[in-house]
Amino acid sequence: MGALQQRGGRRRALAEINVVPYIDVMLVLLIIFMVTAPLITPSVVKLPSVGQASRAPDTVVEVDIKTDQTMSVRLRDPTAKPGTAGLTEQTVALPQLLQTVGALAQQAGSQAQTMPVLIAADRNVKYDAVMQVLNRLKAGGVERVGLAVQATGKR
Q1: pTM score, two decimals?
Q2: Where are the alpha helices (DSSP H) in the chain?
Q3: Which residues are 119's β-sheet partners?
Q4: Residue 74 forms beta bridges with which residues?
Q5: What is the pLDDT averaged over residues 126-134?
Q6: For residues 34 and 136, is the Cβ–Cβ distance under 8 A?
Q7: Please, which pLDDT band fits residue 34 given cuts at 50, 70 and 90?
């Protein structure tokens, strides 16, 4: 309760707030935050940088996803003779993707599981379409799947 003050016979209450305990509590909280802040490790997500992207293998199966959601698959093999089947783009639907990738891998002398597959999507393609292709390849046992990027040379 507030103290009473007497002046000339009239009594009135003093309205004052003691802020010292509040300051003490705030200083203790400040010290606690200052001590614990360096101990908290933030979750760091290391995103791939386009400028530091590794070079794709020479022989690879390329899956191109275009803006209208159509897919084309081709084999990129610098040792193959020109005119070899598979070097030209083949339009394919998602259910037939694994069979086409397997056939192109056999043509290159490899298996679908060990053949590197490179997914190249147009910049305006929905993320969901890329993830469906990636999921279909992973579910089919393809171990080496990568995403194609255009190197800008910036770091």
Answers
A1: 0.59
A2: 20-36, 97-107, 127-139
A3: 63, 147
A4: 62
A5: 88
A6: no
A7: very high
